[in-house]
Write a structure and sequence with these properties.
- With about 300 residues, the chain is mainly beta.
- It has two domains: about 140 residues, 7 Propeller (Methylamine Dehydrogenase, Chain H), CATH 2.130.10.10; about 150 residues, 7 Propeller (Methylamine Dehydrogenase, Chain H), CATH 2.130.10.10.
- It is about 0% helix and about 50% strand.
- The termini are close together.
């Protein structure tokens, strides 16, 4: 596939998706080692602007919150990278964060745009000064995490318990037992609420320090993934993807099934899901309508253009 095209995409399933803060660019990473950056200004016809490869399966993506041209990648081979990605020139790798003893399953920027947290292996997360390529330490007992706009880090342990900590102040984590193990979490845009996708199919909203706020009994199988739109949380799992208002009222239900935590992103008027297709599955946040429904990924030799 060549940049500028609206046709098919990756040659293997999409494993990670991330919207730039303005919602106008969507990055997708695949098991074939490729990263695509799409122009999503026309939601029904995403256009490929940039393609590059990291040569091994891509397992995590995150746009920098302060520098819109910086994209972090994580791979199955235990390294993370920081890339400069702009529309009118080839992507350039600016930093390599290597040596994680296990796949880097997700990457999360801190709000300062300098520090990157890499979730790796089974239950560990490394903290880096990304541009300085300096390892600063790690968190343990962490299988999923999310960073708030204020720099609070929510983590999910191997037992499904949730904790929130302030890394910079070094305060001990706030923690609370829950009715069911949590599989994924996401912060609201203002950092005041944390959405929790639970194994019992409920979506729970809590405050920044885990005080209960609202429980939504979705009742549609296990919830594996959650993110947050301007209108409220969006969650998906075994049987469907759902959007809710901040008051817990259902907004829409889509039959899109999300295979894993972290396989959902929102940007502008869109939600993007990493499914088994060769392109992200795009939904309209207003009503859940499918805008792009990719076919299954092609299993054939494939190379990047140029």
């Amino acid at each position: 596939m060549i940049p500028g095209s609206t046709g098919v995409g990756h040659a293997a399933p999409v494993g990670a998706v991330a919207f730039r803060a303005d919602g106008r660019r969507l990055a997708s990473g695949s098991a074939d080692g490729s990263v695509f950056v799409w122009d999503t200004v026309d939601p029904s016809r995403p256009v490929l602007l940039t393609a590059f490869t990291v040569h091994v399966p891509v397992t995590g993506l995150a746009w920098n919150p302060g520098a819109t041209d910086l994209l972090a990648t994580g791979t199955s081979e235990g390294d993370a990278g920081v890339w400069r990605v702009v529309d009118d020139r080839p992507p350039a790798r600016l930093a390599t964060l290597a040596g994680h003893p296990g796949p880097v399953r997700s990457v999360e920027w801190m709000p300062d745009g300098q520090h990157l947290i890499c979730l790796f292996g089974v239950e560990r997360a490394a903290i880096w000064n990304a541009m300085g390529e300096a390892y600063l330490g790690e968190l343990t007992d962490c299988v999923r995490l999310a960073v708030s706009p204020d720099g609070l880090v929510a983590t999910i342990g191997p037992d499904g318990a949730v904790a929130v900590r302030d890394l910079w102040r070094g305060t001990g984590p706030a923690a609370r037992p829950l009715a069911s193990p949590v599989l994924d979490c996401a912060w609201s845009a203002d950092g005041t609420a944390l959405a929790l996708a639970r194994a019992d199919g409920a979506l729970e909203l809590v405050t920044a320090y885990l005080d209960p706020a609202l429980t939504i009994p979705v009742g549609d199988g296990m919830l594996r993934c959650v993110t947050w739109s301007s209108g409220g949380p969006v969650a998906g799992g075994e049987t469907a993807t759902h959007a809710f208002g901040t008051d817990g009222r259902p907004r829409w239900r889509s039959p899109i099934v999300l295979p894993r935590a972290g396989s959902l992103a929102v940007g502008g008027p869109l939600a993007a899901a990493a499914t088994e297709g060769e392109r992200p599955h795009l939904l309209a946040l207003a009503d859940g309508a499918t805008l792009v429904a990719p076919a299954l990924a092609r299993q054939e030799p494939w190379t990047l253009p140029g």
